[in-house]
Design a protein that fits this description.
10 helices
């Protein structure tokens, strides 16, 4: 059989056109599907149920036991407090789910907080602490903290809910302090460039620390008072929860410094340094009344991960029809964190 050049050309063109049309159709269908989900998500929003992942116990067992087995609940606080899963509302939802099947009937006998965080917003640090404290009081169970990496500032604030704090030998703890800013003033640079700005306000100090005009002496006084008040509350919060942490030395000597786990144990920031995950879990099991050969289940509870949900919540450029080219430098904080009171290790914004 012979084929002419014309028939080969037509056949190739037809195949290309069919393939292109198929791909285009799939892309359009996907775009319409995402748009429909976005429209629906805007109208009805209901928290998704959390996931329960079987985790290893202190002996390395991770078999799924029957529903009568006592449970130790693991909650991971990894990342910047106030971002992603580390927001008050999301932790509250986790704890609400921890009171439903299959964890009903007081199956949860203790909570292990796995912490690796530089801190974050003061509001979410306090909110997460209060949510955990309420859960602890309601169910009358112990809460232990296991630090594997960094537990600074807001992480320490949340850790105050714990009966015991364990830390690996390489962990770093501390940074008890409050941060607001930095704020910049561009007025001199603008003057050199011949640039002027106008801000319309009504009310004394409404444009406090306006970066486009010279600052007045004392205009930041109210903010300094807020920071001082927040710091005093932070110090009282920590020294009340950690009696070995000397209040006077914390203010005058330790300040917002960070320390390795061994020094942190000496000063009262943590109870046990050089610990492992299994050490912390075994100690928690004992405090929860689970001793000897009694079997128990360790569940890690976490928010359900959904690609579509993350895409919709991320305000992704794909959904806005634009491509953004960026080169990130300096601060790792998102813009939404600016202007907020922070319990945060300062290395993240330098």
């Amino acid at each position: 059989m012979q084929f002419s050049k014309e028939s080969l050309f037509k056949s190739s063109f037809r195949a290309f056109f069919v393939s292109f049309s198929t791909i285009l159709g799939i892309a359009v269908a996907l775009a319409l599907g995402i748009a429909a989900l976005a429209l629906f998500a805007d109208r009805v929003k209901k928290p998704e149920k959390s996931e329960l992942l079987v985790s290893q116990d202190a002996d390395g067992n991770r078999s799924l036991l029957d529903d009568s087995a006592p449970v130790l609940l693991k909650i991971s606080l990894h990342g910047i407090i106030g971002e992603g899963a580390l927001q008050t509302e999301k932790i509250e939802n986790l704890l609400l789910d921890a009171e439903e099947e299959p964890l009903k009937k007081d199956r949860v006998k203790g909570v292990l907080l796995s912490i690796n965080t530089p801190g974050g917003t003061s509001s979410d640090s306090d909110g997460i602490f209060r949510a955990l404290k309420a859960y602890k009081a309601k169910h009358r169970i112990p809460i232990y903290v296991f630090v594997d990496g960094l537990c600074a500032s807001g992480g320490m604030y949340i850790s105050a809910v714990a009966d015991q704090i364990y830390a690996t030998s390489s962990s770093v703890v501390g940074s008890i302090g409050v941060l607001l800013g930095p704020a910049f003033n561009f007025s001199k640079a603008m003057e050199k460039l011949g640039v002027e700005s106008v801000t319309l306000t009504d009310g004394k100090n409404k444009d406090m620390l306006n970066p486009f005009r010279p600052w007045k002496d004392g205009e930041d006084a109210s903010l300094k008072e807020i920071v001082a008040s927040d710091y005093a509350r932070f110090v009282n919060h920590m020294t009340t929860a950690r009696p070995r942490l000397d209040k006077e030395k914390l203010i005058q000597v330790y300040g917002a410094q960070v320390f390795d786990a061994s020094k942190g144990q000496e000063l009262g920031y943590v109870d046990v340094a050089g610990a492992t995950y299994r050490d912390a879990l075994a100690s928690l099991a004992k405090a929860a009344g689970i001793e000897g050969d009694k079997k128990y289940q360790v569940f890690e509870i976490k928010a359900t991960e959904s690609f579509v949900k993350e895409l919709l919540e991320s305000n992704h450029s794909l959904l806005k029809g634009r491509i953004i080219h960026s080169f990130e430098t300096g601060s790792l904080l998102k813009p939404e964190m600016s202007g907020k009171m922070l319990y945060l290790y300062p290395g993240l914004i330098q």
